[in-house]
Amino acid sequence: MANIKFEDLLGSGAHFGHVTRKWNPNYKPYILMEKNGVHIINLDETIRNLNNALDFISSKAKNKGEFLFVGTKKQARDIVQQEADRCSMFYVVERWLGGTLTNFSTIKKSIKRLNLLEKEGSRIYENQTKKEIQMLNRERIKLSDQHRGIKDMRRLPDAIIIVDANLEITAVKEANVLGIPIIALVDSNTDPTPIQYPIPANDDSIRTIQLIMQAIADQILESSGKTPKIPVVVEEAVVEEAVVEEAVAEEAVVEEAVAEEAVVEEAVVEEAVVEEAVVEEVVVEEVVVEEVVVEKVVVEKVVVEKAK
User: Fold this and answer.
1) Per the structure, how many domains does the chain have?
2) Is residue 257 in some structural domain?
3) In the chain, N or C terminus with fewer CB closer than 10 Å?
4) What is the pLDDT of residues 50-90, one digit of tens each?
5) Is the pLDDT of residue 223 over 50?
């Protein structure tokens, strides 16, 4: 089981709640004290409730249970997607569509439509005008964004894991209607009553979300015996590094070409200077010759005059 220590939660800021005026009275058992107008969450309760949630997750994962991660807030999107991918589970990081659980039959039809649009060489694109194909592509992109994390989900999940139950209140209500157990990260502004496994902590802290989601994903992997997938972030980093290296190489080539061009221009300038010097020398020689001829003519005139 993932072992999260008190110091880890304290260092991630998991103990900070909301300002006192925003609190929910049902959250009182998880509040340690009030300081500077902010509620401080009891981290002993956080550890106890997290261990209970991990025990439940372990029992479900051993029986090949499926989990749905939900985190549509900005701080949680990337973390939820990364951890869900790592343990091969489903996730929702875009807007929660009403009826995702309670009207799952319609969602499956929408996913089936998406699979048809994504299939290469599909007959749906045959005999269509350019405008109609463009509309189909827009529909494909929209459906892909909405269902990318649940595209392979064939049935309702055995449990749902939520970041910020107050924001995802629609998902909480749908899960309770269907009797699906909920594990949720709850802050001091959230009512923990409708949640079967609440984990009291700061749901606005990226480090806290990362710590708890990672512990849950590790527990699923450990109990199910699955091999963790390589995060997509690493591949993106490699691609970015390759792009940077390519850009550096291109820049070096450009600099080399500029340097060669500068050398060529310098050689051309030197050659032009040499040619100009030669021309000046020839002109000087011509002037000297002309002066000599003039002097010779003058001398001849003087000799003629004397002879007369």
Assistant:
1) 1
2) no
3) C
4) 999 999 999 999 988 999 999 999 989 999 999 999 999 99
5) yes
Residue type, 285: E
Instruction: Give Cα 303 distance to the centre of its chain.
Output: 103
How far apart are the C-alpha atoms of 136 and 114, rounded to whole Å?
10
- Looking at residue 101, its pLDDT comes to 93
What's this model's pTM, rounded to 2 decimal places?
A: 0.69
Closest CA to 165 of 1, 11, 12, 53: 53
Q: Which domain holds residue 215?
A: 6-101+156-229
Contact assessment for residue 198 and residue 244, using Cβ atoms and an 8 Å cutoff: no
The answer to the question of residue 298 being in a domain is no
Asked if 215 contacts 65 with a C-beta cutoff of 8 angstroms, the reply is: no
The whole-number pLDDT of residue 148 equals 85
In a domain, 114, yes or no: no
Q: Is the pLDDT of residue 281 over 70?
A: no
Question: Is residue 161 classed exposed, middle or buried when 0-12, 13-18 and 19+ CB atoms within 10 A define those classes?
Answer: buried
User: Which residues make Cβ contacts (< 8 Å) with residue 114, sequence separation at least 6?
Assistant: 140, 143, 144, 147, 151
How many CB atoms are located within 10 Å of the residue 308 CB?
A: 4
Q: What are the structure tokens assigned to 193, written together?
A: 């009553």
Strand order in the sheet with 31-35: 16-19, 38-41, 31-35
Lowest mean pLDDT among 140-144, 153-157, 188-192, 239-243: 239-243
Bridge partners of residue 46, in order along the sequence: none
Domain membership of residue 259 (yes or no) is no
